[in-house]
Design goal:
The complex is a heterodimer of chains A (66) and B (257). Chain A is built from one helix and five strands, in the order ββαβββ. Chain A has 66 residues and is mainly beta. Chain A has a five-stranded mixed beta sheet, with no helix packed on it. In chain A, β1 and β2 form a beta hairpin. Chain A is globular, with a radius of gyration of 12 Å. With 257 residues, chain B is α/β, with parallel strands linked by helices. Chain B has a single domain, classed as TIM Barrel (Alpha-Beta Barrel), CATH 3.20.20. Chain B contains eight helices and ten strands. The chains are: A mainly beta (66), B alpha/beta (257). The interface between A and B is medium-sized, with 27 and 35 residues.
Chain lengths: 66, 257
């Protein structure tokens, strides 16, 4: 099924959890924040969410800035 | 030097440092170490999924530095609030350098949207440090809604022009009930010293260090200037006047009339 991650289309298996997606992308869940369909999640929620077709996910991390 | 106190928390250094524009994370880390700073700013951006870079946070000791996320890139209050909440969700303490800059050419802060966002974020328990133009009336309004500092600009971000807003910053300092941090535009240690001599509680520097030929050396130079400026302010500067006033005695000259 298709989801949108950071404005890019991505295909994932049905019943993929958000945690599994984070692992698949090689991200460290302690260094990121996630907006799931515009809701900001706590880290504890990552493993409880099963992705649905059409989900929109924003994943952000810290970069250099002033 | 006396400690800087923001929202009840003490900091030894009065120099805040940004982490943008450095050639490498290693250079950034060396520079913040040389600055002696305790507070370092970071920005929040989408993860680049196809090209994941070495994580900045691998190079910043969170036990040693307070990570101060900014809301750079926000064009209105809603975007700034969203970024602040995301920073907190990413594991930061609820401190935020609030920036709302709808104008991409001069990056001047939007006073109305900044005030709106500050009000919401303070209510949500954030320690809010708003980046503002050097407007004393706006600074007062922000203090009324409960911000932890005000951060008036010296000149537009990254311009290295120095304390162009000197007279208005002086009014903000005179009236402030929270620490005043001069942010943006300080391009040389002398600019930082000038702000501190004026009575600013702290300054924030990024570009001037990051674009120097030797960033850690420049950071050390800023640290000295901030300290010198603070000490001069505490010592009490003499008044300026137009007519000369001799430092040496006006008696006992080797002449008869």
């Amino acid at each position: 099924m298709e989801i949108t991650v950071n404005n890019q289309q991505r295909t994932v298996d049905t019943s993929t959890t958000l945690s599994a997606l984070i692992d698949e992308m090689g991200l460290d869940d302690k260094r990121i924040a996630i907006e799931y369909n515009r809701d900001i999640l706590s880290r504890e929620q990552f493993s409880t969410i099963t992705l649905q077709a059409g989900d929109t996910i924003e994943i952000v991390n810290f970069v250099g800035g002033g | 030097m006396d400690d800087l106190i923001i929202a009840g928390r003490s900091f030894r250094s009065r120099l805040m440092v940004g982490t943008g524009k450095f050639a490498s994370n290693a250079q950034m880390a060396e520079t913040i170490a040389a600055s002696g700073g305790d507070i370092v700013t970071v920005a929040l951006r989408r993860v680049n999924i196809d090209d994941q870079q070495d994580d900045l946070l691998n190079h910043i000791d969170r036990d040693k530095y307070l990570l101060l996320p900014n809301t750079s890139g926000a064009r209105d209050a809603d975007e700034a609030i969203r970024l602040a909440r995301l920073s907190r969700a990413a594991g930061c303490e609820p401190w935020v350098k609030l920036e709302v800059t709808p104008d991409p050419y001069y990056l001047l802060p939007d006073p109305i949207e900044t005030l709106k966002a500050a009000e919401v974020l303070v209510k949500e328990g954030f320690i809010v440090l708003p980046y503002i133009n050097a407007d004393p009336v706006l600074a007062k309004h922000l203090q009324e809604v409960g911000v932890a500092t005000v951060m008036p600009l010296g000149a537009p971000i990254g311009t290295n022009k120095g304390l162009k807003t000197r007279d208005n910053v002086a009014i903000i300092i005179e009236q402030a009930i929270v620490p005043v941090v001069v942010d943006a535009g300080l391009g040389a240690p002398s600019h930082a010293a000038e702000a501190m001599e004026l009575g600013a509680d702290a300054v924030m520097v990024n570009t001037a260090m990051a674009v120097a030929a030797n960033p850690p050396m420049m950071a050390a130079a800023f640290a000295k200037a901030v300290e010198a400026g603070r000490e001069a302010y505490l010592a009490g500067l003499g008044k300026q006047q137009n007519q000369a006033e001799a430092s040496s005695p006006l008696t006992g000259f080797l002449r008869n009339k």
